[in-house]
Structure formats: structure tokens, C-alpha cells
């Protein structure tokens, strides 16, 4: 029967209750071979042939275990066992399985030697096994390649595999293939390098480097923050092994994201940053890179280099990261996705993401969950990430694990995507190397995330000026007397005769001498000529925001694009409402209807694609558009299949990626920022479902989008579409917080625009990619204006126009008669326009500021000069006074005035909330705003 199991172990036919069926079939075969189908007869015949030289002993494992429990009598009869022996074997099988499930909970993988209580269900007695059974031979399931072992040896082997330096947590995985792969890896080979003394010496050398840089900095720069890796030095061999093994697997790039713990160590010992450059940063003598204005602290800086591997050169990137720890996760994933995309199809194994976490941050920060949740979605999958948790067993200096999380492990959030977790003792570098190899192999095999939980400690406080023993006296009393990982491993090699004490000391001395001489101490760094992608950003350095861009498109091209977007697969049935939208777009292309927003926006994407510019559009409802205006993804009402017309314009067009994203702001926006900061020649657009939701990604906006260039010299052309406008939908669905973006504006870091016509969004989106200028673009996009009867454009506006940063008066108003000028931005313009026309106020002109930053000073002054008899200027906005553009933009208005005219404010009163919740109150307020702008507070009609 053991051969039967071996032959059919991987067959789906053996799942669940099918096991009983197989057994019955086999019994029939034994009685009468002709009574079973020929295919099964052949298989059973092979088993019988093998059994002549191998008396079968059933392992009763996995799929047959239930058979043994439910029908031991029949199975015993079939195999010649006693019923008692079958029960015992079944008990052993359950014990083995329980070690796989729970062994990690009692693993000796904590370098600080915490007491471990063995649960009762890992005791043999729990399964009815006693001392007399200890020397009985049982089927061991090929532990370390041995079929049958005494129970005593089985338990000893299980403890070595599952309760030693490695605690493998993988039995929660539903996928049988990946779970079996891990089991076979763990149970077929032992960790260790006993047969590879050369590798052992290299491992010691890396630990010496990891410890050596910290000692050097501690001695040379007393009291300065460096966020030491001491206690977690095994991170350096992990990264080195990941990089070298990735190269063996023909990867071309590895992108690393990490917070500041151990960052300087990684920069010097892995990426090959010059110690001279690092020392200059400590001493304040370093020179910032081009484009960097403020710079950043040294433990936030990124770096890239090229390193030789057995599979060829590999490009290593360490992403810039602020102190917001895990926020780098989606940024790195987005950067990796961009790198994979530009390498073409089948490239997920060419670029490997590696994320390094802190234990408290991995458990505590929601962005970790958001990023994990993206890992296997169509829009955001990067083929699996290797996660490394530097588990100091303490969050901040004063934290306690029970206050830091509500879970057993800091890594339990990874269980949501069924990622395997290898909890490994940081003081056993050979075990660390073993799980590193297995983790990368798992990623390459299954293209899923995997976690290495490097259980270690932090020798010093949160920073080097901190005294941790004031709040953690017991832990740090133990750490004080605990030998370092390098010391422990050096002693192990000395005792094994691999090296001498003099060899170990020479390693340390040699490393310190290289640092003193400011030599590069990592693996040799290759030249930069093998990686040319970074040069594509050069043309955007020091460019000007008003550099010219011809965004016009010929009428024939517009009609061609529309025709192609109307061509649907045979049998494709649109929803009646969508069909009406598409019918209207045909009329717009023919000039029979004014152009609406959805038509113009889709044409912007289509024309860019035909000009060989790629487009990527993501957000929670971008296919349809939150307000059903875009319909870039169409859905067949017959079978539910989707179709993206923008992907079928021409066989030579550029790629269009349009994905409805998961319900995440911070994760998705961070991902798209990472993508856009890696790929300058692609229109990358993120749309918030409502503009208000952008505040769920405020860290990404503050730390990357608005300041990435100033701090790190990182450019990005990311577009954010934020639906904005006061429609009476309450505080949470009115404002995209325009004021917050304007407050972030300085040094020409971002663009903030509030377009009011379809032609404006058409030219604005095209301008973003066509001109040689890459800065993030923040767009206050419309809701009600999507279908407003006045918010329309003409075909000529697309064929002959351009994006207008300022739109002057459009009605037949005589400039000489204008005494009152209203300045505004966005939707309020149409409210003002309708009442002015209704009341025939010929002395009032209305000017729209479509680009609030960088402020278009020249065009604004040119517009003001048209009105020689101005008496008053009003800024009108629908947002409360403390919000919107008023406080952040009024200095631009005053700076460009040639007359001594006071600019007054017309709008809502200051408010703690963006808008009221009652629709009738909203209408009353809106009318009051318009009235105040047109007539003043105490004048005109009531």
C-alpha cells in the first residue's frame, strides 16, 4: 500500500473521500484484476511488481490518514497489519503533522533564550504513544530521506527540523503544491555549511563587516544617530545571499525598501557606498546631488550600484525612505512593477522586490496590510516579494510586545495572503542562510510573497543617545552579557578547526584598516554603463514649468480614435446607458454635439497611445469613473466579459493599462508614485473615488509627492485626479482639500490645476507627457461639471487649442465698462456666470485661474491690463474661507497688481468641516456666495 500512496500521492483522485474509493478499487483488483478499468489495472500492476522487492508499509499520511482512522479494520486486513498497529501508525502520523503545524511555537530560535512551554498536543502521550513505543519502527514519511525510524528518532528529527533555530510556519497555506514544496525542502535536507568551509569563512567575513562598521562609527562619531544594526548583523548575509542567488536565477535587478534601522550598514557593506561619502555625511562636508535643495538625513538616503553575480551583473537599488517606516513598501512595489513592465512580458523574475521591516512596524502599520493585499492582484502584482523582518523583539525603547500587537507573532498579518514565514534565530547565521535560500527559491517557484522573521535583538537603544535599560532593565541586562553573532560564529568555526583565533582577529583588523583608508568594503562594484535607464531622466533636470508643448491633435486623428473606440467585438452588448454615451460620442466626433468631459479625457489617452506614449490609469472605479463619465472599460451584458477599447486602437500603439484598484488610497497611491518615479515616459494617473479620500494617503503626498525632489532629487510625473466640488453631498464628499496641496507648494515642486472645460483636461493630460517637464500634477477634477450644459468644448478647441493657465472673460463684455473683476477657480465659475447673465451685469468680468501653482504671473498680469477702469477685485470660492485657495494664493494676486486695489473675499465663512450636510442649507449658502461676489455683502438683490 505504501507504493500505492507514493504513486498516487500527487493525484487529485486521492483527495478527501476518494481515498476510500481507491482502496475499494484496489481490493477488487486483488480479487479479480479484470474487474477494474484497464487504466487502473496497469497502475496496480506496477505496484504489485514493486512490492515483490519491497514489503509495503503504509505511512498513513496526509490524504490516507482519515482512511486509517475511519476504517482501520479494512486497512489492516488489506496490509496484513493488526488493527492496533494501524492505530499506532496513525497516531504517529498525527504527531508528525502536528509538529509541522505547531513546531514553530516551541522552536529554539530566540537568541535571548526565552522560556518555552511545550503544549500538550506535541507530547506523544497526547496521541496514546508511550515509552514502550519509543523503540518501535514507524513510517517516518521520509524525514531526511529515511522511510522508517524508531519513534524516539522520529521525535528527535522533528525537533531538529521544526523546533531548532528555524520555526517554519507554513501549514496554514491552502495551496497543496506550495505547502508540499516547503515540507519536502525542510524534511529532505539539514541546514548548515559543514561541507563548505569556504562559505563558512565568507559568512564570518560578512558578520565581521556588519559588526565592524558599527564599531567604527560608534568610535569615530560618538553620540551621533546611526540606528545601529548591532544585534541583527545577520541581515547582511541575508541580503548578500539574496542578491547572489537572484543573479544565479538570471535576475537583472533587486529593489530594496527599508527604514533606517541598519540602513547605513546595508549601504556600505551591500551596495558599496564609499565610506568616505558616509563619513562626509556625518561630518557635514558632503555635496548634495543635482536637484536636491534641502537634502535629508543620511539614514533616509537611497543608493544604487551594480554587482557581479554567478548569473551576470545585477543592479541593486535601495529606495529613499522617510521616517514613516513602512510607507516605502508600496513605493518599492510600484518601482519594481515599472521596471518589470519596461523589460516586457515574462519579466517578473528579472526584477526582485525585497522589503525590510521592523517587528513593531510590520505588525502595527496598516500600509503593510494594504501592500500585502495588492501582491496578487492584476494591477499590482510583482511576482512575489521577499520580506525580511528585523525582529528586535521590542518596538520603540519603551514598547512591550503585548502592547505592540494582539497576535502571537509580529508577522501574523502575512497570514492573510498565506505567505510562509520562517522564524529564524539571528545568532545562527547558517540557519539564516538556509532559510534565505529557501525563501528566494519559493518566490521564484511560486511567484508569491515569503517572510523571513529574523529573530534578534537591539544591542543599543532606539538611537545611540537613548538608554534602553531605563524602561527594559531585564532585557538589557541579558543583552549586556550576550556575545555578538560574529563572536559566537567565530568561536564555532575555531572549535571546528575551520579557522584560528588569529584568522578571526585578522579579519576584523583588515576590515577596520579598509575603513580607515576609506576603501569600498563591499563586493566589488561594477561600472554604471550596464544600467542606462537612469539616464532617461536627464532631459527633465532643470526644465522650466512653462516650457512649450504642442498638444493639438488633427481632426482626422480625433475621429479615427473615436471610431476605433466604438468598434466592439462581435456579440458585445453594452448596457443601454453606456450605449447612449457611446452614441453621443459619435455625434461629438461628427461635430453634431458639444464635447463633454468623458469624450475629451478618453481622446487625450487615445491620442497619446497612438503617439507611442504608454498610459497607466488606476483607482477604485476608474474603468467606469465614479460618476459614470469615462467608460474606458466596457462590460458585456450577455456574459460579463470586459473590453478596453483603448487597448485596440492600432497594432502599433503603446500599451494602455487600466485597472480598477482595491479599496486602498495609501497603498495604491504609493505604488503609482513608485511607478511614476521610475518611468518618466508614461502617463501614470491615479484617481481618487472622491477627492476627499486622498487624505487617506497623506503620508505619500507629504513625504514623497510634494518633497521627494527637494529631499532626494527624485522626479515624478504622477497625475492625481481628485473629484472636487460642493454639490451638497456633505463634508466628506465635497472637498479634495485644495488648500493642503497649495500649502505644500514651493520651489516649483508640484502643479495644482483646476480645469473647467473638456478641452482643458484634454490639453492638460497631453501636456503632462509631451513637454519635457516632470513634476506631479494635482487636478481638482469635476463631478457635476461632467455633464453641465455650459462645461462643454468644441472640436476646434482640441485641434487648435492648448491648456490655458488663465481663462479670461468669454462673454461679450466690454473691457472699458468693467469696474468689478471676479477671480475664481473651478465649478463656482458656472454659478457666477449663470447669475451674471440672468441679471445682465455688464460691468462685471470673470477670470478663471486654471493653474493655481506654479502661478501664471505673466498671463495673470496680461489679463488684468485689459480692464483700465477697475474699482474692485473679488476672489470667489465655494470652499470655506480657511480652506480652498484663498489664504494660499492671495499673495500671488497682490504681487501682480499694478493699481492699489484691495482684493476682497467672497465665499463661505471659516469652518472646521469642509461642507454642511443638509442639501437645502448648501443651496442657500451657495447662492449667498454668488451674491456676495456679484453684488458685495450689502448691495444688490436680496
Description:
The protein is an alpha/beta fold and 942 residues long. The protein folds into four domains: 2-176, no CATH class; 197-529, Thiamin diphosphate (ThDP)-binding fold, Pyr/PP domains (Rossmann fold, 3-Layer(aba) Sandwich); 555-800, Rossmann fold (3-Layer(aba) Sandwich), CATH 3.40.50; 806-935, Multifunctional 2-oxoglutarate metabolism enzyme, C-terminal domain (Rossmann fold), CATH 3.40.50.11610. 39% of the residues lie in helices and 13% in strands. It has 33 helices and 25 strands. The strands form five sheets. The chain has a nine-stranded mixed β-sheet with strand order 3-9-10-8-7-4-6-5-11. A seven-stranded mixed β-sheet has the order 15-12-16-17-19-18-23, sandwiched between helices. Strands 20-22-21-24-25 form a five-stranded mixed β-sheet, sandwiched between helices. Strand 18, helix 28 and strand 19 (777-781) form a beta-alpha-beta unit. Helix 24 runs parallel beside helix 25 (698-705) and helix 30 packs across helix 33 (919-935). The model is unreliable at 1-20, 50-78 and 938-942 (pLDDT under 50).
